[in-house]
Amino acid sequence: MHYLNGQFQFVHEILGPVQGISGTSDSNIWFANGGLAFWNGTQCVDYPFTGLDPTLPNIYPKAIYSVWCSQDGQVWGAGDSGIIIHRSTNGTWDVQQAPTSMQLSSIIGFSPNEIYAAGSNQNCSGCGGVLCEYNGAMWSVILQSQNPDSAMSVYNMKVGGSSGDSLYVVGNGVFHRTATGWQNRTPKQESYYAENVCAQTWNNVWVCGDYGMLLHFDGDHWTEVGGAKWPYSADEILWDVYTAGNQVFAVGEDLTDYNIVFINGQ
Amino acid sequence: MQRKTFFLFAPLAMLIGMTFSCRTPMPSQPGGVPPGHNALALKATAVSTRWVTLQWNNDSTAVSHSYILLRNGKDTVYNGSVAKSVDSMTVKDSALTPSLTYNYSLYRIYQNQHWDSAVCAVTMLDTSRDNYNYIITNFPGTLNAVWSAGNPNSVWLGGGHG
User: Fold this and answer.
1) Count: domains in chain A
2) Residues 6+ apart with CB under 8 A from A110
3) Residue A6 in 3-state DSSP?
4) Which end of chain A is more exposed for a tag (fewer CB within 10 A), N or C?
5) Size of interface A-B (CB pairs under 8 A)
């Protein structure tokens, strides 16, 4: 769906729910929908990795839930059991493997040599999370959170940030990695699970989550702009948040009527 | 042509300058200070919704390294000396109000007078306005992902049917 000049437009229907989006322009967008799908501005091309197309890798029954693409045309999709699907600049696909059995549901990159993917154990809520890093040659685990009681415990983990030196992981808390290490930035307003994070700059960070939670960090303070302030907040989940220009967009679902929720503000 | 103009008016300008300096010495700029110092410059290096960091040069050749920084001409933000070895000084002013503009004045103090000064106006960021459109559509399903290339008038949404 395209929110164009204040209007919703249905653009294309693809198989499988879209869990992640990344792109470089309005005519170069990748969608993670179990496999991947590419929008070139006029049409959508599906890339299922289920064995139906012999020219594509077969990762079935694993699925891809998040995607990030670089300016040079490479694409990384992350999914079940640490699997990474990669498209090179010449259009060929290969399968990479992060050293984890967890489901990677979040991926962000700052260059083809610096990509981060986060995930959690989908079979055990609260059992931990993992953050993996790709250095251009291999994936490695840089944060493993297994013990919910530990000081640096993040489960239901998602990753975001404005650079590798200003990286955020969120879940049952908000943690910020700077050049000096990880710091707990969990705001007192965070009462529920955070589902995603978007950091435009170090002093413009947004966190969304359960019960309509939407938090903003201005570099000094956290402000709750969502949650109880919404007209209906008890039964909404905000799954993703993104900033464009001076505006913020958050999306999710209303669990009462099972309709989609869309928030736009500045 | 420009060079001729300069020669034509330079003696006149020097004469006027000498006349002014003799008749109305600036009370805030005491004499006897060494020449060659850099003019004081004040700038904001980071702005948030509630705080700002201000920076100025601490010219090592200046006769004085004592400064007073005022907010809106009345509230003292800084009053003290800076070591000669420090090239620049940074001060953080907090507890400000989003979207308001503050006028900062920096004075270099010498013999209880200000030798030179600099000003800087800073408008706090305003990301705290409660200005949000909250829409529960009548579209069944969920939106799981949102992305934009940077244009707030072109935002891509992805999800699934209910």
Assistant:
1) 1
2) A163, A164
3) coil
4) C
5) 179
The pLDDT of residue B15 is 33
B95 close to A (CB below 8 A) = no
Return the pLDDT at A254.
84
First-to-last alpha carbon distance for chain B, in angstroms, is 80
Question: What domains, with CATH codes, occur in chain B?
Answer: 30-123 (2.60.40.10)
Spatial distance between the Cα atoms of B79 and B75, rounded to a whole number of angstroms: 11
pLDDT of res. A144: 84
Structural domain contains residue A166: no
Tell me whether B151 touches chain A (CB under 8 Å).
yes
Nearest CB among B129, B139, B158 relative to A31 is that of B158
The average pLDDT across B58-85 equals 90
> Which pLDDT tens digit goes with each residue over A200-235?
888 889 999 988 888 988 877 888 876 555 555 567
Report which residue type is found at A224.
E
Q: Which residue has the higher pLDDT, B126 or A56?
A: A56
Whether B158 and A246 lie within 8 Å, measured CB to CB: no
CB contact under 8 A, A4 and B154: yes
Give every strand in the sheet of A44-47, ordered side by side.
A20-25, A28-32, A36-39, A44-47
The candidate with the shortest Cα–Cα distance to A226, out of A243, A238, A239, A240, is: A238
**What average pLDDT does the structure give for chain A?**
88
pLDDT confidence tier of residue B155, bands split at 50, 70 and 90: very high
- The answer to whether residue A261 is domain-embedded is yes
What is the residue type of A243? T
The β-bridge relationship of strands A236-244 and A247-254 is antiparallel
Tokens of residue B33, six digits? 């200070």
* Within-domain flag for A66: no
From start to end of A88-202, where are the E strands?
A: 93-97, 103-111, 114-120, 129-134, 139-145, 158-163, 166-170, 174-178, 181-184, 194-201
CA A77 to chain centre: 11
Q: How far apart, in Å, do the first and last CA atoms of chain A sit?
A: 21
Domain span at A231: 187-266
Cα(A109)–Cα(A162) distance, rounded to whole angstroms?
Answer: 9
User: Looking at residue A262, what is its pLDDT?
Assistant: 85
- Per residue in A25-55, pLDDT (tens digit) is 999 999 999 999 999 999 999 999 999 899 9
Measured between alpha carbons, how far is B114 from B112 in angstroms, rounded to an integer? Answer: 7
Query: pTM, whole model, 2 decimals?
Result: 0.71
Residue A197 is assigned to a structural domain of this protein: yes
Q: Is the pLDDT of residue B20 over 50?
A: no
B26 in A contact zone (CB under 8 Å):
no
